[in-house]
Amino acid sequence: MSNNQNQTKGLAAVIASSSVGTLIEWYDFYIFGSLATIIATKFFPAGNQTLALLSTLATFAAGFVVRPFGALFFGRLGDLIGRKYTFLVTLVLMGFSTFLIGCIPSYESIGMLAPILVLLLRLLQGLALGGEYGGAATYVAEHTPASQRGYWTSWIQTTATIGLFVSLGVITVVKGTLSKEAFDDYGWRVPFWISIIMVGISIVIRMRMKESPLFAKVKAEGKTSVNPLKESFGHKLNFKFVLLALFGATMGQGVIWYTGQFYALSFIQTTLNVDVSQASKLIMWALLFGTPFFVVFGRLSDKIGRKWIMLLGMLIAICSYWFIYQAMYNAGSTAMKKELADKTVVDVKVIADNKNSGDSIKTTHTAKVFEDGTTYKEDKTEIIHADKSKADANKDIKSIKTVVLDDGSFWKLVLLVFIQVIFVTMVYGPIAAFLVEMFPTRIRYTSMSLPYHIGNGIFGGLLPAVATFLATKATQANTLAAKAGSTLPYKAPYLQGLLYPIIIGAVCFVIGAVYINGEDNRIED
Amino acid sequence: MNQVRKILGIVWIALGLVAGYYLIVSQAIPKFESGKPEDKIPAIIYAFILTPIIVGGLLVFGYYALKGEYEISEDAEHHLHIKED
Questions:
Q1: Residue A2 above 70 pLDDT?
Q2: Residues of chain B whose C-beta is under 8 A from some C-beta in A?
Q3: How far apart are the C-alpha atoms of A46 and A57, rounded to whole Å?
Q4: Tell me: the pLDDT tens digits for A86-145?
Q5: In whole angstroms, what is the distance from residue A1 CA to residue B82 CA?
Q6: Alpha carbons A191 and A279: distance in angstroms, whole number
Q7: How far apart are CA A89 and CA A130, in angstroms?
Q8: What average pLDDT does range A445-472 have in this prediction?
């Protein structure tokens, strides 16, 4: 076997052992989000203000606040004691936190302790994730020759998407295997338990790994940083590159990533009301087709440079989002489909409300079939108060709409999400190599982790809240205009949420294009 | 091009201020005033964590740009590079 073959085999082993752990960490992080609805019913039941507060804290804090802190904490550790042991710790922390979430008795059994434990474990998950990615990317990059760094680190980049894919897949399989009652009872815990097996295997693999050769060399020469935090963020020479990495690369990458994977899923589920299981399958197909392109663009970045692949992906994405989401709406919304009126069934029942005498409950079940085969179901419950002054449309009317798409519409949506995943791969594929090359070995873990997690956690993580705010404002403005009989100010209020990724992406594109030196932007060790 | 890099520094500083106004006025204050318990945490996060990071970051970035910290030498020999490869 030639030296080249041996080197490639050795690198493949390094990538595999690093990637499996990172993939598992993403899987662990996503299953909480994917099972958020059922977790809420088990640990944060509605009607209790403290629980609502804890639930929001679990959602926001783990995604926004804790990840950058994890980047700082573990980044510092990684630059002081080494990459290998640090990202082994993050893996153990993540694995056990996830497993334990699956073991916590429900709120009904142990009361307030249950949501508090969930919150603590969720915070540990965020902390671990903040430390994992920078370690894995740094570790892999420090094993590879500069000419192939984009290619090899792009495998690490696939893990975030495959982690989402695997989490959706495991949940779909468990749901499909168990009855609805069994899944609600204990089945939702299974994806959390599975994590411990995967983590166990990954720990064994990682224990066998050696320290990164570049870090080992720096350590042997006694050149490791004494205070990585101060050196990374306290010295202007390095801090200005941290800011450039954030505003010229990771900020845009964060919003493109969230739009392509999470906003797309949310749009399909909430705006188009597509059945949860069908929406998950749709995203899984798009991710399956799109994921290999991480490696394609990672490799390409070794040949033609990282900067313009990332920026081109960002530019095409922000120029086409509006049209893509309009096309998604046209393909999936029942408002754009022809209804077969003779197949419409409306079943209305009114029964007395046992809890409040005099009041009654009206249930309306509507089933529609459309010309292309798409079906629509709506279950609406309305409380009719005897005392009309108690009526409150926001509280009294509850409606669940479910759309099951025909094959044609389904595959059109797969294609449109796939296009967005391609943008993600262009921006995300080369970024690990780009970040690693920006900073010197002695403070690399700390310096690259923070901009990555601020870009993703904060700019990307803000997307759902800001996009919902913008879309709601537009819908409210249209409702008010319709009541006043004036022209509607927004032709497509459902698209207004896209303004956030488009504006952030545009700012990032300009900063990246103007300030990043495409040929060489690296710091001397 | 270096002149453009410097002048754009003013834009990033202005953008930082606009972002701060948006985050505080459109996001944090309405959530503080809503009275809903689930809005308290996002309001605190917007006001005391996100705003300082985004606004502070853009202001410092703009300031560095304005001071010429991101000027790129046209002479390739002056480019910084990592030695380890």
A1: no
A2: 1, 4-5, 8, 12, 15, 26-27, 36-42, 45, 49-50, 53-54, 57-58, 60-61, 64-65, 69-70, 72, 76, 79-85
A3: 15
A4: 988 998 998 899 999 999 999 989 988 988 999 899 899 889 989 988 888 899 989 888
A5: 31
A6: 19
A7: 12
A8: 88
pLDDT value at position A466?
A: 82
Q: What is the DSSP string of A75-107?
A: HHHHHHH-HHHHHHHHHHHHHHHHHHHTTPPPH
Look at domain A3-334+408-515 and name its CATH class. Answer: mainly alpha
Mean pLDDT of A347-366: 86
Check: CB of residue A421 under 8 Å from CB of residue A261: yes
Return the number of other C-beta atoms located less than 10 Å from residue A487's C-beta: 8
First to last CA, chain A: 34
* Nearest CB to B84 within list A55, A441, A511: A441
Delimit the domains of chain A by residue range.
3-334+408-515, 341-406
Largest Cα–Cα separation, chain B: 60
The helix or strand, by DSSP H or E, that contains position A377, with its residue range, turns out to be: strand A375-384
Instruction: For chain B, give every domain's residue range.
Output: 2-71
pTM of model > 0.90: no
Nearest chain A Cα distance for residue B42, angstroms: 7
pLDDT at A393 over 90: no
